[in-house]
Amino acid sequence: MTCQEALRLLYEVIDKEADQIDTEEVKEHLNNCRNCMARYQFEQMFKTFVSEKAVSNTKTEQLRSRIRSQINQMGGKPTDFFNQHKRIIFSLAASLIIFAAVGLAGIQYYRYETSIHPFEEGHSNGFVTGTPISAVNANSYNAEGILPADFHERLKKNLPDYKLVHVENEEIIGKKFVHLHLLNGKAKISLYVSRATDMELPDFEKASFSGVEYNRHICSECQTIYWTKNNMTSVAVSENKNIDLPTVIMALEPI
């Protein structure tokens, strides 16, 4: 089964409308195709999310109460039409707010799934441990070809807490990144570096460190921060949430 065939049947499988043969073939394809599996997981989770939000009677009633309160604060008497149909109006207004919130949440989740999750997945599935290449407080690694000369970035000389154990080139979200595998004690850290040209990552929670503004996303399994400086985009990922990950920003400096 091809990816196109699997995706064509995907919604029928999710809605349990596909026959047993199609379902088994799609599931077999998903087990062997990471891209289609990621699409399936997203669609499944989004459907569950929408269903839970749409049937939330408690939240609907809370929204209705807020709408009533706002109308009362405006003063004046409602028209006869409004008075006769206020239950319907309240319900429609509450429903519109709920579905708007669901839509915005869905957009945010989609942006995370397509722009941030690939870095987290690359870290968790592809991190290499081993003997450090050398201490990060040694001279610039650029002489060893770790960062391309035209990046105009290098690892700082005085970072004794970090050990570089592996470097590789990876293509993520359609861009080429240099993936540096770092250790801070036993904590594993992936640092991805690439040019910022034609690349835009979603604006999640904003913060700053040593004058550098960055975004961060913390999930149940890891923390991810990303920033753009000197026309370079860097993404740092670690499953250790106790480590002060923004210090990795200091691992790079312009040449």
What's the topology here?
Elements: H1 3-14, H2 20-32, H3 34-54, H4 57-74, H5 80-115, H6 117-126, E1 134-135, E2 153-155, E3 163-172, E4 175-184, E5 187-195, E6 205-209, E7 212-218, E8 223-229, E9 232-238, E10 252-254
Antiparallel strand pairs: 1-3, 2-10, 3-4, 4-5, 5-9, 6-7, 7-8, 8-9
DSSP helical segment count = 6
* Strand neighbour order, sheet with most strands: 1-3-4-5-9-8-7-6
Helix content: 40-55%
Strand content: 15-25%
Strand elements, count = 10
CATH topology of the largest domain: Phosphorylase Kinase, domain 1
Radius of gyration: 25 Å
Count of structural domains: 2
**Main pleated-sheet profile:** 8 strands, antiparallel
CATH uppermost class of the largest domain: Alpha Beta
Shape: globular
CATH superfamily of the largest domain: MucB/RseB, C-terminal domain
Stretches where pLDDT is under 50 for at least 5 consecutive residues are 135-144
Order of helices and strands: HHHHHHEEEEEEEEEE
Structural class computed from helices and strand pairing: alpha+beta
Going by CATH, the architecture of the largest domain would be: 2-Layer Sandwich
What's the rounded overall pLDDT mean? 75
Main features:
alpha+beta; 8-stranded antiparallel β-sheet; 25% strand; Phosphorylase Kinase, domain 1; globular; 255 residues
Question: How would you describe the overall organization of this protein?
Answer:
- Helix content is 43%, strand content 25%.
- The radius of gyration is 25 Å and the shape is globular.
- The longest helix has 36 residues, at 80-115.
- The protein is of the alpha+beta class and 255 residues long.
- Strand 7 and strand 8 (223-229) form a beta hairpin.
- It is built from six helices and ten strands; from the N terminus they run ααααααββββββββββ.
- An eight-stranded antiparallel sheet has the order 1-3-4-5-9-8-7-6, with helices on one face. A two-stranded antiparallel sheet has the order 2-10.
- It has two domains: 3-117, no CATH class; 129-254, Phosphorylase Kinase, domain 1, CATH 3.30.200.
